[in-house]
Write a structure and sequence with these properties.
With 493 residues, the protein is of the alpha+beta class. It is built from 18 helices and 21 strands. 51% of the residues are buried.
Length: 493
């Protein structure tokens, strides 16, 4: 098993050069098909995490839990598995780890018995003071089972001296800092909570008499549920006896959702702030074209991340859009770990140039973001090798210069290409004819704002600006973030 876990990590590094969001969460109340609908919801949220998945259900007397490595469709696709999860209440979780190692004990939802009864929690995000809190809890006698920062929340709830379960949760939330969307399951009660800035997403849906919490609206669509509204920043929403109750215990703040939900993380068909993510991405491309058009024959996206922006770019400049690169969608999921000789083929395992389309053409290559630049370099080379006359790279977001501490797997600052090289140096590194990024104000214009509010930014945009709405307390230095002690990956408990 240890070897399998290591292989899994290697595959993720090889095949996914993009930023990686930590998790997707789902919760449903008062449904005879709760666990089945939870599995479907998680399937729709699969893009938010592929390391592991889990569901906890409640049948009125007992809690039931199933947690597995891998994809939802590979683990919760059989009736015998879902029968192990009876009850009308269920919460689920897809995991991509940024804090803690890849062991089954780190797969959520987490469950614990407390003096007021059982509680399960699914968490999307990252706590910026998890290590500080964990050390204090350990000193006071707490015993941790996992290396996930989510368990810190459970420990704080268990140690709270408040009498009611909801008050214990509020007590815990006042102690944690960072970005989070949380779904709790207690006896016949479903609770959703969002951090005071609303950095991580959480929406409310309804299917007949059942209320639903989900990371994105696409999880509502798959089960035929209606979108009700977002959980507001700093809001706690309780579903009990088929009634919705809103609690706002925190001092009021203006919402600052994560800009990368709009750029990349959210599924294209999900609704963000009243508008489809796909439409935002087309608008990024249009603004990019306004700022940096170049005479060329074709507009070509890096599939699939650059598709929408490339369409928007092409529509604005009235230039041909074409699939100059073809993606193999099965690599990294069903392809076995390649031997070193095959691995050296690199990006060609996933992407291949459409030679007949790009030969002797001047190409504008569009992607949503540029992180390390290694993959972009390989793609540009691939296009030239296939006969492209010129390759001009356009990125539909600003330069990523700062790491993330809120649940997104960004590299350290020293690994971020734009943090260490200027535009000309990056262009030379990726071997493009020219290179342009979308400006910060251009990004804001594409999202319907006149410009970025310098005093109080409308979005959490620290990737580009270094403006962190929540101080990363556990940060040890410019480039390093402490990690929780890693349990042996040989253990599957």
């Amino acid at each position: 098993m240890k070897k399998n876990i290591k292989n899994q990590k290697k595959k993720l590094k090889i095949y996914n050069p993009k930023l990686k969001e930590e998790c997707g969460v789902f919760g449903i109340s008062n449904s005879v098909d709760a666990s089945t609908l939870a599995a479907l919801g998680l399937h729709a949220l699969q893009h938010r995490g592929q390391e592991g998945c889990g569901i906890v259900s409640y049948d009125g007397k007992n809690y039931h839990s199933e947690k597995r490595f891998g994809l939802v469709g590979d683990n919760f696709n059989k009736e015998k598995v879902l029968k192990k999860l009876p009850g009308e209440y269920a919460i689920g979780h897809n995991r991509y780890s940024t804090t803690g190692g890849t062991t089954l004990r780190n797969v959520q939802p987490f469950f614990a018995d407390t003096n007021t009864g059982g509680i399960a929690v699914a968490h999307n995000g990252n706590l910026t003071n998890a290590i500080t809190l964990r050390n204090k809890l350990v000193e006071s006698g707490a015993i941790f089972y996992s290396t996930s920062d989510t368990e810190t929340i459970i420990q704080l709830i268990a140690k709270s001296t408040r009498e009611k379960k909801i008050d214990k949760i509020i007590d815990a939330l006042f102690q944690i800092q960072g970005a989070y969307a949380l779904v709790f399951l207690t006896q016949n009660t479903l609770i959703g909570a969002r951090d005071p800035f609303g950095i991580r997403p959480l929406v409310i849906g309804k299917l007949n008499k059942s209320y639903i919490f989900a990371s994105e609206t696409c999880a509502l669509d798959i089960i035929g549920a209606k979108y009700v509204r977002e959980v507001e920043n700093g809001e706690i929403v309780c579903i009990e006896n088929n009634e919705l109750k809103s609690i706002k215990p925190f001092p009021e703040k203006k919402q600052r959702p994560c800009v990368f939900e709009y750029i990349y993380f959210a599924r294209p068909d999900s609704i963000l702030n009243g508008k489809c993510a796909y439409e935002y991405r087309k608008d990024f491309g249009k603004e990019l074209a306004k700022e940096s058009d170049i005479d060329a024959d074709l507009v070509v996206p890096v599939p699939d991340s650059g598709n929408a922006a490339a369409i928007g770019y092409g529509q604005y400049v009235k230039r041909n859009f074409d699939l100059g690169i073809i993606r193999n969608h099965y690599v990294g999921r069903t392809f076995i770990e390649p031997i070193q000789k095959i691995r050296s083929l690199g990006v060609k395992l996933k992407l291949n140039a459409n030679k007949s389309t790009i030969k002797n053409k001047k190409i504008v290559l569009i992607d949503d973001s540029l992180v390390r630049g290694t993959t972009c370099h390989k793609i540009v080379k691939m296009l030239y090798d296939a006969g492209a006359k010129e390759v001009h790279v356009r990125i539909a977001s600003p330069e990523i210069k700062f790491p993330d501490f809120y649940g997104i797997d960004t590299p350290t600052k020293k690994e971020l290409l734009a943090a260490n090289k200027n535009n000309n140096e990056i262009c030379e590194y990726i071997n493009a004819k020219s290179l342009k990024f979308l400006s910060i104000n251009g990004m804001y214009r594409a999202m319907g704002f006149e410009k970025r509010n310098i005093t109080y930014p409308q979005l959490t945009d620290h990737y580009f600006t270094g403006d962190y709405p929540v101080k990363p307390i556990d940060n040890l230095g410019d480039d390093e973030v402490t990690q929780l002690s890693l349990l042996s990956t040989a253990s599957n408990n």
